[in-house]
Amino acid sequence: MHRKRSRILATLAIAAALLLGLIKGPGLALRAVGMKPQGTIQTTLAAIPTTAPEASTGRSLDTIEIACLRCRSGEYSVQELGMIQATGRLDVDGQPVYRLVFDEAGFNHLYSTWLFPALRETPFRGIWLDLRDGGMVAYANTNVDPDGYYHFSPDVTYMGIHHQGTDQAIEVLDVLPLGPADRAGLKVGDVIHKLDGDSTADVPSLPDWTRAHAPGDVVALTVVREGQEIVVEIELGIWEQDSRWHDLGLVLAPDATGARLVHKGLSVGKDVYSLPQTGSLATAIVEAQHLLDDLLEQFVVVGPLKGETHIDSIHFTEDGLVVVMR
User: Fold this and answer.
1) CA–CA gap between residue 80 and residue 64 (Å, rounded)
2) What gap in Å lies between CA 106 and CA 147, rounded to an integer?
3) 131, 134, 192, 276: which could join 170 in a potential S-S bond, CB 3.0 to 4.6 Å?
């Protein structure tokens, strides 16, 4: 029993690591591990074929009895389970069919209270689910600079790099993951020769030059990378108390059967990146998929209608989530 419990906790830890993105330390950006931009969350989920949620002509239910190996079994009110509506009926064979409807707050309640309570104790700032039409995004708030390596003054315009300069050029030593420079594609080893067309020799201090701009300004850096001169345009940001923290999430949507949730990409803000094919993050994704499948398979309604049901289909709408169980 102890070994099984340890395996469950280990799997939960892997799922947490997945949501955190395993992005830690200078220079480890999404593009650096082979993850390519795939558009936005909305365009990704809009491409998912959806079917209309099954309407229920059954009676409205006040309580639901559930059985689950990974959560607390028993009889609970619809409100306790975070549902805004629950109906039940018998099909033509006399078997129970349930239709459970959640809004975003209710499903987050179910997720954190029933399905993944252990993740609330993990050392990062929160896990929450954003329901979207066609799917959802499972977010975590993660620190991309956990060791405090970057030391910028608060409330100043910043680019997000460590550098060393000579009379003729500025060499990029490190890039803050998911910072302005990293988002623009600046890389460690790039040598900056011009700032907005002016020679770096005319700039006494890169931080002072950066702070002379306003957050949101777009600056053009002429750099030499592997012997070739290119221009990198960077939209400057403002360094605040939470600048090290970023919302990372998995985009999830039902597969062709409608009963299984699959990963469609990793989101950073509204942008979606392809999933990695190799490495620790790819392994964590596979483990998290197994965990998700296991949780969905184990979640069983055993009442109040006679007989038990398992998840038959999952539908995401603009207003929330509809789960049909047969």
Assistant:
1) 10
2) 35
3) 192
Tokens of 199: 């020679």
Query: What are the structure tokens assigned to 48, written together?
Result: 């998912």
What is the rounded average pLDDT of the residues 29-56?
77
* Residue at 164: amino acid letter: Q
- Which segments within 41-134 are labelled E, that is strand? 59-60, 63-67, 74-77, 83-90, 96-102, 127-132
Which amino acid, residue 215? P
Of 247 and 257, more confident: 257
**Which residues touch 16 (CB under 8 Å, ≥6 apart)?**
119, 122, 124, 127, 140
What is the predicted pLDDT for the residue at 77? Answer: 94
**Angle subtended by helix axes 280-298 and 2-20, to nearest 10:** 120
Cα dihedral sign for 216, 218, 224, 225?
Answer: positive
pLDDT, tens only, 179-212: 899 888 898 899 999 999 999 888 878 989 999 9
Instruction: Answer yes or no: are the C-beta atoms of 232 and 186 closer than 8 Å.
Output: yes
**Cα distance between residue 288 and residue 12, in whole Å:** 8
* Residue spans per domain, the chain: 2-144+244-325, 156-239
The proportion of the chain whose per-residue pLDDT surpasses 70, expressed as a percent, equals: 84
The region, left, alpha or beta by phi > 0 then psi within -120 to 50, assigned to residue 291 is alpha
The answer to whether the CB of 251 falls within 8 A of the CB of 272 is: yes
Euclidean distance between CA atoms 162 and 215, whole angstroms: 19
Q: Distance between CA 311 and CA 324 in Å, rounded?
A: 6
Read off φ and ψ for residue 132, nearest 5 degrees. -125, 160
Write out the two tokens for 79: 């409100």
Measure the CA angle with vertex 40, ends 19 and 291; round to 5°. Answer: 30
Q: Does domain 156-239 have CATH number 2.60.40.420?
A: no
